[in-house]
Amino acid sequence: MGRQCRALNVTLRVSADLEAPSDGDDEATWLLGHTQRITFRRLWRHREDLFARVTLHVPCKYLSENGSGACCDAWGYRGQVAPSEARHQARQFPNDEFRIVENGRVTTRQLRQPAPTKRQLAVLNVNPCATARCRTSDNTIGAACCRDLQIEIMCDERWTRQDLLVRSRQSPYLCKVERERPDSLEVEVISACGYLGPDGVACTLHGRRRPDGSVAKPALCRRWPKPTKDETLHPGCVYQKSVEGGRRVSKDVGAG
Questions:
Q1: pTM of this structure
Q2: How far is residue 84's CA from residue 8's CA, in Å, rounded to a whole number?
Q3: What is the extent of the structural domain holding 182?
Q4: Is residue 247 situated within a structural domain?
Q5: Is residue 244, in this structure, part of any structural domain at all?
Q6: Within-domain flag for 131
Q7: Contact, 8 vs 169, CB < 8 A?
Q8: Percent helix, strand and coil across the chain, each rounded to 5?
Q9: Residue 223 has what pLDDT?
Q10: Among 163, 137, 165, 162, residue whose Cα is nearest residue 235
Q11: pLDDT per position as a tens digit, 104-114
Q12: Which end of the chain is more exposed for a tag (fewer CB within 10 A), N or C?
């Protein structure tokens, strides 16, 4: 029995094939936003890839607990296992300040909503996801796209122990483990985004811009889901019926 019964320390590949120092900022801001079950630690760049050292707070599926302690259902070990919870990692603060990634480094920036111009047309900005009954596989209702994500865990084919530890996590909080590369595993994790607003659906980064004028909201979050034959949408997603009147429904303004 040990800490691995409740959590795993791993390295994630955040983004790849980077050229400029800022190329991975969008993906890193998106990934580091999902703080519910992931504690993010060091972020660094090696050659053309950006990596992050993290702790995944998902217990082993063989861990059983009762009043007298913990037990491993796979090996029969018994003992005490210290609790493991993701520490609070704020991503939004008062006075329009947010924790984002800039040039490959985590920083805090003031990101204000741009003031409307006199010539700006009035637009009714309706978020179709606001009242959607979409749900993640743990049956949490609302903003399902902001509550689960796919991550790439660095795990060489020779690292059999880590491979087994990853595959033994409790589903659905970590599941769908697949090896698509010899040096890593692709997995799905349920870990809600820290940029969600008080209603648990709206994105607090929506509409904001970085100091250089670029959009603050990561590119991964700026498009409505676009159903394809290779993509499975969450149950209850408003885009399950993607074709209406012979026309595919899609928007580019981003949910939330």
A1: 0.86
A2: 10
A3: 3-115+125-222
A4: no
A5: no
A6: yes
A7: yes
A8: 10, 30, 60
A9: 74
A10: 137
A11: 999 999 998 87
A12: N
